[in-house]
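ok trying again, last paste got cut off:
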Amino acid sequence: PSTPRTKQKESITKKKTIKLVRKPSSWVHDENPPSNIGIFPEADYTSYRGKSPTELFDLFVGTDIIDFLVTETQRYALFLNVQDPQITAEEIKSFIGILLLSGYNVVPSRRCYWENALDTRNELVYNSMRCDRFEKIMRFIHCADNTNLDRQDKMCKLRPLINLMKERFMKNYIPEQCMNYDECTIPYFGRHPCKQFIRGKPIRFGFKAWCLNTSSGYLISFEIYQGNRVNANDEYESHYGKCAAPLVEMLDNLPHDTKSLPFRLYFDNLFTGFNLINHLKQRGYGATGTIRENRVLKDCGLTNSKTMKKMKRGSFEVLKSVEENISVIRWVDNSVVTVASSCHSVQPIGNVQRYSCTEKKKVAVPRPSVIGEYNRFMGGTDRMDESVSLYRIGIRGKKWWWSIFSWFLDTAVHNAWIMHRKSGEQMRLLAFRRSITQTILIRQRNPPKGPGRTPSSAGSVTDSR
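nice, full thing came through this time. structure:
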């Protein structure tokens, strides 16, 4: 008789063998774009016009999340059999304000903010919270109930907060037609089974997150990668792959009044496949993405990349599936680029400037329309990464989930800034972040009664004479 362990192995092997049967298609040369593209309503940000940066930030890190952190922090202190630290919501707000300040006002140690020294002390931090109180919150800050954890979920320590942040991001999302799905890396250098190493990336070590962004960079939804996910949709993973399955689940969670809109999605060759594009097309969504050589269907008949590489720069070839109405375009630039799309094609053909080594000058190279549209709308996640990395929270913690927790706060500031700019304001990200920090710390002002910390011996200035 088979044991439970062997039954589990058999079920795993069965899941891996599930494949979506696809009928062969007939392909024709067709350069015209698809005609079944719906009209998308213009994004309306007037409801956010006139709101201050702090009010926009409170839409993502509001009273419910503050109260949640207070409850879980006190519960964790009792779990450790420690006296109740009696942390209040005002102290959590000051704690978050100090974290945001550490993103643009960097000191060697977090205790330097409270030192009685002219070169490191920060009056806003000093007058809002005591150093020992900040250290106590750092010790007990928590995001889940340790007595009720799903150990199969590797993100169980953050799962309640993840669900709250997803709900907030989705609730304040103003629908835009073009969305971008890509991966994001959260830097982390400790030990954890979900930690990833990606060679050649700006951040090589850290947690990987699948992100769904608008073309302007607003983070709509996300999922922290952890290999075999708990409560994952096996059908989605078998049909579209583990990388693209979270995208389909995120689209399932869109608000009901927006699911019927004709969205357009853009992704790179890690996710692109004909099964995914066809599925999105059946939902009424357009999809465009670069596609790998081994994922191009064998019955397509597209010219081989090695052969096209010998052609003149600017040459292209396009084939369209008659049954699925999906175009595959292969274009010769510095290298051969292959794109699959259900909403774009070659026409109208534009030009792009490239340097010619033979002519010793820049020349105009023909470029299909689908390439230009892909370059225009693909960079939403990269824009978010750039703005988050500019003023990333600088205070580090010893808990493995601290880097993800601080990433939530940074992305909340980023989303609030995107909404501020979309509503017609032109404030820079640094000024926006500083406005939030100053407002929070001034509101929670609580000056100490005695003198501050004395400088350490290493940081003090002495006269050697």
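cool. DSSP finds 15 helices and twelve strands in the chain. Confidence is low (pLDDT under 50) at residues 1-18, 457-465.
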